[in-house]
Amino acid sequence: MSLKTFNVVDLFCGCGGLSTGFSKANFRILGGVDNEDTFLETFSKNHRGAFAANIDLSKENFLNELKREIKNQEVDVLLGGPPCQGFSLTGPRKFNDPRNSLYLAMFQTVEFFRPQLFIIENVTGLKNMWGGQILEEIVEKFQRELGYKVDWKILNSADYGVPQLRKRVFIVGVNNTIKSKFVFPQITHEENSYVTCMDAISDLPSLEKELGDEVDTYKFKKQSNYQKLMNNGCKDLFNHVATRHSEHVKKVISQVPEGGNHKDLPPGVGDSRKFNEAWTRYHSKKPSKTIDTGHRNHFHYKWNRVPTIRENARLQSFPDSFRFYGTRTKQNIQVGNAVPPLMAERIALEVKKVLNAD
Ligand SMILES: C[S@@+](CC[C@H](N)C(=O)[O-])C[C@H]1O[C@@H](n2cnc3c(N)ncnc32)[C@H](O)[C@@H]1O
Q1: Using CA atoms, how far apart are residues 218 and 222, in angstroms rounded to an integer?
Q2: Which band of pLDDT confidence, cut at 50, 70 and 90, is reported for residue 68?
Q3: Does 197 participate in catalysis according to the annotation?
């Protein structure tokens, strides 16, 4: 039961996957910050009324710019998925190293605004960096210096009804003025009931013939529950444009069975790509592999092409009404970087329980 609308600020917001989930759970998105204009355009057009600020969060004076955007509004929840490349070079106990300034931006924002709760999302590699000492240091710093109660967990999006295997680490900190404990969301889907690629995208036009218009109308009436949930009455089909592959690529991928990869090709075929996930074809009856920022090695389970932006967006659980802007390369980055909104929504509902209980 919702008693109050809570304000959210999203740092390193990208197109706003995290924000979309929180918005669905009826949080109010005050704004997002990124240093990429295209991503901010997408964020802004899909989060009307929220600010979308281009601020370099590695700069020493970023907080002044952020304060100007937030004005005197209260920040109840701070979200952020900062890149963490600095830590792998500098090792633990080096939080203040400039290369780690992006984590520091989260820390300083929490320190200034004192949100009731913060969430940091990151790749699972963070857990093993320097034998786990980096993650431990992040947790300890927020606990020791700001008095937040901090917990973390690796979540797999498929366990929450997203048709994609995607594991990410979530660090959640609760202000010590709050009595209730944050509990990570219960799994809603077991492996034998995972939402599949076919459930997710079978209704979308194949684009075998019609390479044409970016905005089309739906031609398929039969929809799975997941498709209904994602479509939710949206009449227009955005970002559904096929990549034009060479005859060579089409010929090679046509020989890969569903769920297969380069290892399933006959000798001498597709030798140009041999690495781990090369020539991977999704399986129609399984969730997809982790959607990435566009390395173009994952193919549609049925058609001899890579998935369109819309198909990847569906596999990431973006609603059909969510439109991506910028070049196709930039759109791929936005989709691949995002936290699946459906998973974010599940987390947001647990956050709400904590905030409402107080
Ligand atoms: C993993 S993505 C975040 C995805 C987002 N949480 C979502 O759910 O859609 C990280 C973002 O950090 C942004 N970024 C990287 N360095 C930055 C900086 N110095 N200042 C602000 N944003 C930065 C990138 O442009 C990228 O959009």
Answers
A1: 11
A2: very high
A3: no
Which neighbouring-strand residues pair with 33?
11, 53
Q: Is the residue at 77 inside a domain? A: yes
In a domain, 103, yes or no: yes
**CB within 8 Å of 18: residues ≥ 6 apart:** 10, 79, 81, 119, 121, 338, 339, 341, 344
Q: H or E element: which one contains 337?
A: helix 328-337
Task: Label residue 86 by pLDDT band (50, 70, 90).
Answer: low
Atom of ligand 1 nearest to the CA of 57: 20
Residues with CB under 6 A from ligand 1: 12-18, 34-36, 39, 56-58, 81, 83, 102, 337-339
333-357: average pLDDT: 97
Ligand 1 centroid to residue 308 C-alpha, Å: 22
The residue to which tokens 């500098």 are assigned: 90
Residue 68 CB-density burial (10 A; 0-12 exposed, 13-18 middle, 19+ buried): exposed
318, part of any domain: no
pTM of the model: 0.95
Domain of residue 180, CATH code: 3.40.50.150
Query: How far apart, in whole angstroms, are the C-alpha atoms of residue 115 and residue 123?
Result: 23
Q: Map residue 29 onto helix, strand or coil.
A: strand
Phi and psi at residue 53, to the nearest 5°: -110, 130
Q: Which of 50, 82, 56 is nearest to 69 (CA)?
A: 50
Domain that holds residue 43: 7-186+339-357
Q: Say how many domains are in the chain.
A: 1
**Has residue 273 got a pLDDT over 60?**
yes
Q: Is there a domain that residue 34 lies in?
A: yes
Share of the chain above pLDDT 90, in %: 77
Which pLDDT band, with edges at 50, 70 and 90, does 103 fall under? confident
Span 188-243, pLDDT tens digits: 999 999 999 999 999 999 888 755 544 556 666 678 999 999 999 898 899 999 99
Residue 143 to residues 71, 153, 171, 174, 292: CA-CA distances in angstroms? 27, 16, 12, 10, 33
Rounded CA-CA distance 157/344 in Å is 9
Taking 90 as the threshold, does the pLDDT of residue 153 lie above it?
yes
